[in-house]
TrEMBL record, chain A:
Keywords (A to Z) from UniProt: ATP-binding, Nucleotide-binding, Transport
Record's protein name: ATP-binding cassette domain-containing protein
Domain (ABC transporter): residue spans on this chain: 2-244
Swiss-Prot/TrEMBL GO biological process terms: peptide transport
UniProt keyword Lipid biosynthesis, yes or no: no
Domain of life (superkingdom): Bacteria
Gene Ontology MF, one: ATP binding
One Pfam family per UniProt: ABC_tran
Automatic annotation (TrEMBL), chain B:
Family annotation (Gene3D superfamilies): MetI-like
GO biological process: transmembrane transport
Location (main, coarse): membrane
Location in or out of the cell: Cell membrane
Protein species of origin: Nonomuraea terrae
Pfam families on file: BPD_transp_1 (PF00528)
Name this protein carries in UniProt: ABC transporter permease
Length: 292, 294
């Protein structure tokens, strides 16, 4: 459904774009219908940039991103099938308008012919789907609602469009623990209805909760990618091991990450090509930065 | 159910009605616009009630306000009330034309540069900076002297064409911070185009800021026009508040104790600009839902 081939993003920085910064380099993966793929990486690893490129909000420097075989392009037709939700719900709403304006915008753009009362009923249904009480959230300004309510309003908005792919960029990081699990369960339910989700996060435990496949991103490159069980159960790349070691655990002190001296996948070193370590489990050379 | 009805297509109208509801209940806004309206009406209808041409010399020079001459007379016996109401008219005109043109250019350049960014921004910013460092008054002097500008409208036009750069810079900076907000992306994902995003998403967030820009440009245009009038490059056939102030200074009204000559024009300029400021604070409270609850 969604396919990325050797996607690279370079930002031009400095006066008149004199210098460049590579945020994403040669990333390739696919998301199938009804599949949740989690994209994990620390801040600055380029994961949000990938999300924005998939949504057509940022141009691609090289490579291709296709949705149903067609390159992504801003426009009503594309956004009918693909939507994104971002990290900060407070910034996703225009503060001078009421929060339910996001629904009115969807109606204006996609369903101008649906009669008002019917639309109102659909909005109510979508709100109940995300476990919101319509009477509590409609007609309010964003600053009168909580982060969890706003985030769920955005999910309800995506539901109204009957989308097939959702790019969820850190959608739970501003939510409290109980709301977080509700949102995740909601995603799981949507997934069972055939929605493909690209779940972008820096939180490994949330990444494992839903995802069939996991992609670990480091400095703009994929270092390890495969079925979630394999990536988390038998991490091959030292960076993935480091990440896993850094997950906080109860009753157990952190152990220091073992330094990398050897790399079984050094053959591919320097080229950025991933080696297949198992069925569907790919890993990059661990000494990529040092081997030439 | 009442809340639900607001999600219907009439929503936009509802927003306007709501703004109006708060507008007519805002004291600052009403006071500010009230003062401006009174002076504007005075400038518009006042000249109809004075039969004396504003610059005609009269038989009774230097007389203080009286029943015959409401605002007194000048050293040459000219009726100051007649000058005042005519002056208000041209002052409002030059402020509206100059401020209006500058605000429109400033917004176009500011929004385009701020929203587009990149090379477009670099080019527009360069242009803005070039116009910004041109000594506007000197250019206006040359243009007015060579083209022999003698009408309020053309004077306003030239003032507008030289006044916009700082407005463009301010709006550009504000647009920069707003365009990276996620609600812009959300609007984009709702199928909105660039123009719609600028007018419906970004501009409403800075509506009072935009109005303030206009007020400052309006006041600035009046002051520049007064300066031009002062050096004799203003409209010759008209009279303006700036010209009145200048004449008062030139003929030592202050030293001669003729307060009635300079107080009315000075007070009127102050009142117009000041009242617009107060109105702007009120507008901010009307448009910004967070301030309404205070």
């Amino acid at each position: 459904m969604l396919r990325l081939d050797d996607v690279t993003k370079r930002f031009r920085i400095g006066a008149l774009g004199g210098r460049s910064l590579t945020a994403v380099s040669d990333v390739s993966f696919e998301v199938a219908p009804g599949e949740v793929v989690s994209l994990i990486g620390e801040s600055g690893s380029g994961k949000s940039t990938i999300g924005r490129m998939i949504l057509g909000l940022q141009p691609i420097t090289s490579g291709t991103i296709t949705f149903d075989g067609r390159p992504v392009r801003q426009g009503k037709e594309f956004y009918r099938g693909v939507q994104g939700i971002f990290q900060d719900p407070f910034s996703s709403f225009n503060p001078v308008f009421k929060a339910d304006r996001v629904f009115a915008m969807v109606k204006d753009a996609y369903f101008p012919s649906v009669p008002g009362p019917e639309w109102a009923a659909r909005v109510e249904d979508a709100l109940r789907d995300v476990r919101l009480n319509p009477g509590q959230v409609l007609g309010k300004y964003p600053h009168q609602l909580s982060g969890g309510q706003l985030q769920r309003l955005l999910i309800a908005r995506a539901l109204l469009l009957e989308i097939r792919l959702l790019v969820a960029d850190e959608i739970t990081s501003m939510l409290d623990a109980s709301t977080r699990i509700e949102v995740l369960n909601l995603l799981a339910e949507l997934k069972s209805r055939g929605l493909g989700v690209l779940y972008i996060t820096h939180d490994l435990s949330l990444g494992t909760y839903l995802a069939e496949r996991t992609i670990v991103l480091r400095r703009g490159s994929v270092v390890e990618m495969g079925p979630t069980g394999q990536v988390f159960g038998g991490p091959l790349h030292p960076y993935t091991r480091e990440l896993l070691a850094a997950v906080p655990r109860l009753h157990q002190p952190w152990d220091d990450a073992t330094p990398v001296d050897t790399c079984a996948y050094h053959l591919n070193g320097g080229t950025g090509v991933l080696a297949e370590a198992g069925s569907g489990h790919f890993v990059a050379c661990a000494r990529l930065s040092t081997c030439q | 159910m009442t809340a639900l009805q607001e999600v219907t297509p009439q929503e936009r109208e509802g927003v306007r009605r709501e703004a109006l509801y708060f507008a007519v209940r805002n004291g600052k806004l009403l006071t500010g616009f009230g003062v401006v309206a009174v002076l504007l009406v005075l400038g518009l209808v006042g000249p109809l009630f004075t039969d004396v041409p504003p610059n005609q010399y009269g038989p009774r020079p230097m007389s203080p306000p009286s029943a015959e001459h409401w605002f007194g007379t000048t050293t040459f016996g000219q009726d100051i009330f007649a000058q005042f109401v005519h002056g208000l008219r041209s002052t409002f005109a030059v402020g509206a034309i100059g401020g209006g043109i500058a605000a429109v250019i400033g917004m176009l350049v500011g929004f385009t540069a701020g929203y587009r960014g990149g090379v477009v921004d670099e080019v527009l910013n360069m242009l803005t900076n070039v116009v910004l460092v041109i000594p506007a008054l000197a250019v206006l002097l040359i243009v007015n002297a060579y083209l022999g500008i003698r009408s309020v409208a053309v004077q306003g036009l030239f003032i507008g064409l030289t006044q916009w750069p700082w407005a463009a810079r301010a709006i550009r900076a504000q647009t920069f911070t707003l365009r990276s907000r996620e609600f812009v992306d959300l609007a984009r994902m709702s199928g909105a185009g660039t123009w719609r995003i600028i007018t419906r998403e970004i501009a409403p967030n800075m509506s009072s800021y935009l109005f303030m820009t206009f007020i400052l440009l309006f006041g600035g245009s009046i002051l520049i026009a007064s300066s031009l009038d002062f050096i004799g490059l203003g409209p010759t056939d008209a009279v303006s508040l700036g010209l009145m102030l200048q004449n008062a200074t030139q003929w030592s009204a202050l030293q001669l104790g003729m307060w009635w000559w300079f107080v009315p024009p000075g007070a009127a300029i102050t009142a117009v600009v000041g009242a617009l400021y107060v109105a702007n604070v009120g507008l901010d409270e009307v448009f910004n839902p967070k301030l309404r609850e205070l």
